[in-house]
């Protein structure tokens, strides 16, 4: 705060701080408070709102605890989101290391351009592109059949298709934090480890990954939260047996007309996701200040 006041002066700095506080209050605090309010109240007709039956309780949350199917989908969404984050890390880490430690300036510029350009298109269109690629009569099946790898088309829609689309959709949120962290690692440290006889695996596990743990944790946090709250990819690419918890929340709001129960489901998802993130950061020994950098 002191640096802000010294750089821009008290007048302009006060305006900046006020705008940030207004944005946080209007776009973050108020919607979440409304969601909590809806989640703890029953779904009533307009005439009964504010009446004796309009009381706060945990009935909507208890309904989720007693609904076996919804509870199973909820738990599946959590571990599947963790799988998305892990898969995205496995894809991004080698690329980030090469970009930070091996690529020339020209190569880095080309790779960043190739990675970023597809994200000029919104997420719905990118997911529809995956829908076309993975379609029963789509190009992926056509190529595999022409190569003789498969004899008949395969239905790729389902958990595999959702996983592929999410990894692609959130790759930047994992790649850039890891790249920024590894870029600050001195190449001399890697060379020293190599000169001392360390294998490539040991160099990465004992030198690179510990140095980049803040960037890795940031990527995991972003990717996990985005995957757990995703709706487009599961709705377009998921099979009947691969429903996502966000689809149930959508159904409560827009098909069932029960905003209170939908808010309760959304609140449970938010709280558990935050708990998973905080536990992950604790295990990785990374604090929120490191993630925010």
UniProtKB/TrEMBL annotation:
ABC transmembrane type-1 domain segment(s): 74-280
Keywords of this entry: Cell membrane, Membrane, Transmembrane, Transmembrane helix, Transport
Membrane topology: Multi-pass membrane protein
Gene Ontology BP, a term: transmembrane transport
Location(s), subcellular: Cell membrane
Any one of the GO CC terms: plasma membrane
Organism superkingdom: Bacteria
InterPro entries: MetI-like, MetI-like_sf
Chief location category: membrane
Transmembrane feature ranges: 12-34, 78-99, 105-121, 128-150, 162-182, 214-237, 262-284
Keyword hit for Protein biosynthesis: no
Similarity annotation: Belongs to the binding-protein-dependent transport system permease family. CysTW subfamily.
Protein name, as recorded: Spermidine/putrescine transport system permease protein
């Amino acid at each position: 705060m002191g640096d802000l006041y010294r750089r821009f002066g008290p007048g302009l700095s006060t305006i900046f701080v006020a705008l940030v506080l207004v944005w946080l209050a209007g776009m973050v605090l108020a919607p979440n408070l409304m969601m909590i309010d809806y989640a703890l109240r029953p779904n009533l007709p307009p005439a009964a709102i504010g009446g004796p039956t309009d009381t706060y309780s945990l009935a909507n949350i208890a309904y989720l605890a007693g609904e076996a199917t919804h509870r199973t989908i909820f738990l599946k969404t959590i571990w599947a989101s963790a799988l998305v984050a892990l898969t995205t890390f496995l894809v991004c880490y080698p690329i980030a290391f090469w970009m930070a430690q091996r690529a020339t300036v020209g190569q880095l510029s080309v790779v960043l351009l190739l990675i970023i350009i597809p994200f000029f298109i919104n997420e719905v269109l990118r997911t529809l592109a995956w829908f076309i690629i993975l379609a029963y009569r789509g190009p992926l099946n056509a190529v595999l059949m022409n190569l003789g790898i498969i004899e008949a088309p395969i239905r790729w829609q389902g958990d595999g298709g959702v996983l592929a689309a999410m990894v692609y959709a959130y790759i930047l949120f994992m790649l850039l934090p890891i790249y920024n962290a590894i870029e600050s690692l001195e190449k001399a440290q890697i060379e020293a480890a190599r000169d001392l006889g360390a294998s490539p695996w040991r160099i990465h596990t004992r030198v690179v990954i510990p140095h980049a743990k803040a960037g890795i944790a940031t990527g995991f946090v972003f990717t996990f939260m985005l995957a757990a709250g995703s709706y487009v990819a599961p709705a377009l690419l998921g099979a009947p047996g691969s429903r996502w918890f966000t689809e149930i929340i959508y159904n409560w709001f827009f098909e069932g007309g029960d905003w209170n129960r939908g808010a309760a489901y959304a609140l449970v998802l938010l709280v558990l996701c935050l708990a998973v993130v905080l536990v992950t950061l604790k295990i990785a020994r990374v604090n929120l200040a490191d993630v925010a950098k």
